[in-house]
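> call design_seq(struct)
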């Protein structure tokens, strides 16, 4: 597919207006995702996590950093993470259902339309929102100005969506959110292809050094292991949601080593 067939930014904006004519801050979406009330929905935890959830997230991030440090031959960092067992959950701030639901929706949209996944229009044209940061900025603009994109986008707003879904996905089952998005994508004739998350090594001019070669080997093994685990475990929420709407597994699932390497 030629790059000239890629949807323009204006066409992407119109597409999102078709999918979400009332914008992301839509009380009807809140009602659809949380019919018993946002405060009673498990999805409220995406904005108001429990102490135990925060501790688990912190532990997961630190463990990943330790793995990378070991791969680089660096010493481990010894840190003590406070135990949150037994702490009672309560929101740290006022619950705002419409805003919190809209921000969760935007985060899941970023995961669907960015993060290396592929979206195509009914005519087969790629729907690309730009790099991860630009895609997040696009969604931030659509959140604030759904009826007309501002002439000068505020790129600083991208952080509220950029990779946020990967940070909060363990706080609640996001399958209903993805399914709502896929349903609207299907109505617009959009196709979606799953791309398994992979580690990559940036070329900084020292690719022939012993350290770089060893690190590249570690990345390759980590990617192989990631694919193996993904094939043995239940499909992630985003894939399950796709199957529930389209009636089949998405292209790219399950991930295959031969497809990537």
């Amino acid at each position: 597919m030629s790059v000239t067939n890629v949807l323009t930014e204006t066409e992407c904006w119109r597409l999102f207006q078709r999918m979400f004519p009332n914008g992301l801050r839509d009380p009807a979406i809140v009602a659809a995702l949380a019919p018993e009330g946002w405060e009673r929905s498990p999805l409220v935890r995406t904005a108001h996590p429990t102490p135990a959830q925060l501790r688990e997230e912190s532990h997961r991030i630190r463990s990943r950093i330790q793995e990378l440090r070991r791969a680089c031959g660096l010493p481990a960092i010894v840190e003590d993470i406070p135990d949150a067992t037994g702490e009672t959950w309560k929101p740290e701030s006022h619950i705002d259902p419409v805003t919190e639901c809209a921000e969760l929706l935007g985060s899941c949209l970023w995961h669907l339309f960015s993060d290396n996944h592929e979206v195509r229009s009914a005519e087969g044209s790629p729907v690309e929102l730009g790099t991860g940061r630009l895609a997040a900025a696009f969604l931030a603009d659509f959140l604030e100005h759904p009826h007309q994109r501002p002439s000068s986008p505020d790129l600083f707003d991208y952080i509220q969506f950029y990779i946020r879904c990967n940070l909060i996905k363990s706080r609640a089952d996001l399958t209903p959110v993805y399914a709502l998005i896929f349903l609207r994508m299907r109505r617009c004739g959009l196709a979606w292809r799953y791309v398994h998350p992979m580690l990559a090594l940036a070329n900084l001019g020292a690719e022939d050094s012993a350290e770089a070669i060893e690190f590249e080997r570690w990345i390759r093994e980590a990617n192989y292991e990631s694919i193996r685990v993904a094939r043995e475990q239940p499909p992630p929420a985003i894939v399950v949601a796709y199957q529930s709407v389209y009636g089949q597994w998405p292209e790219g699932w399950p991930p295959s080593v031969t497809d990537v390497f």
